[in-house]
Each structure stands twice: as C-alpha cells, then as structure tokens.
Design brief:
Helix content: 10-25%
Structural class: alpha+beta
Shape: globular
Strand content: 15-25%
Distance between the termini: 33 Å
Strand order of the largest sheet: 1-2-3
Radius of gyration: 15 Å
Number of strands: 3
Order of helices and strands: EEEHH
Length: 77
C-alpha cells in the first residue's frame, strides 16, 4: 500500500476517532504524534486488508468545503 511513498508525507486528516490497538494479524504501517495508528495492514485468512485514518480520496476543494461547513463546530471544539 505504501510502495513509492516517502518516509514522511502530508495527508489530510480530519477525524476525532483514533485507533489505539490492532486485532490479531494487524500491523501498523504509519503513525504520527497524534494518531498512533494512521495506516494499518490486517491479514485474516487468505485476505490482506488495508485501512487508513487520513483521507487520500479527498481533493483540496472537498477539504475546504468540509472545513467551511464545519467551521462553527471546529471553533466551538
């Protein structure tokens, strides 16, 4: 999943949920000071599954629109 990525990179992370432990067969692939498991690989049976906390699917425009939509809540928090 991370082939070709540098050791560190910037990714949009807009969440308050944090994964703190993985199930059996899980391996942390990325972390940061705020999120101990930012990306993970989980092997179960014959399958390999990947999950991320950050949002690689969002464009900068979508992030800006979401931030504007949630501005009051973000400021209140």
């Amino acid at each position: 999943m991370l082939d070709g990525r540098p050791a560190t990179w910037t990714a949009p992370a807009m969440h308050s949920s944090v994964v703190t432990r993985l199930p059996p067969g899980g391996r942390s692939l990325a972390a940061n000071p705020d999120t101990p498991i930012e990306a993970a690989e989980i092997r179960h049976g014959n399958g390999t599954f990947w999950g991320v906390q950050y949002h690689p699917e969002l464009s900068l425009g979508e992030i800006a629109a979401s931030t504007a939509h949630q501005a009051k809540d973000v400021i209140d928090q």
